[in-house]
Amino acid sequence: MTLAAYHGASIWQFSRILNDCLSKALQPIVRRYGITQQQAQLLFSVHKNKNVTVGSLASRLGLARTNASAMCKKLASMGFLKRHRRADDERVVSVVLTDMGKDAVLAIESRIEKVYLENYINMEEVEKMMESFSQLSTRLMEETE
User: Fold this and answer.
1) Contact (Cβ atoms closer than 8 angstroms) between residue 39 and residue 62
2) Which of 25, 39, 87, 126 could form a disulfide with 35 if both were Cys (CB 3.0 to 4.6 A apart)?
3) The domain over range 3-144 is classified in CATH as 1.10.10.10
4) CA pseudo-torsion sign 137, 94, 74, 114
C-alpha cells in the first residue's frame, strides 16, 4: 500500500468513525423534534444561508435534488419550512424557516452546546479540529477541480 493510499484509507476510516459518533450523540437530541439528523442538517443549512433554493441545498448537503425536494416537502408539512416557487421561474423552489423551524434550530443548537460542548469537549480542541478539517476540505476540493 502506498503512503497516499494509507493516508486516504485513514481519512475514510476517521470520517466514518466521526460520523458514527456524531450520529449516536445527536440522534436523541433531534428525535425530540420528530426529525432525522439529515433533516436537522437541512434545517441548519437553511438557517445559515437564509432564503435558499432546494437545488442549492441539494448541492450543499450532497443530496440528489429529488431527495432534497422530498425532504423539504416533509419539513414544510411538519411546519418547519415554508416553500415557495419563484415568480420569475416556477421551476425554482425557495425555502425559508418558519418560526417553528427557527425555534427548533436554536433549541437543538443550544442543547448540543449544553450537553456536549460544555461538558465533554475542550473548545480549543474543537477549534483546532475545525481548522484541520477546513484545510483538508480546501485541499481536497482543489484536487477535484
Assistant:
1) no
2) 39
3) yes
4) positive
pLDDT (tens, 9 = 90+) of the chain, 145 residues, equals 444 444 555 777 877 887 787 788 888 889 999 999 999 999 999 999 877 999 999 988 889 999 999 999 999 999 999 999 988 888 889 999 999 999 999 999 888 887 776 666 677 777 787 788 778 777 777 776 6
Cell numbers that stand for 26 in this block? 445527536
> Would you give the DSSP letter of residue 10?
H
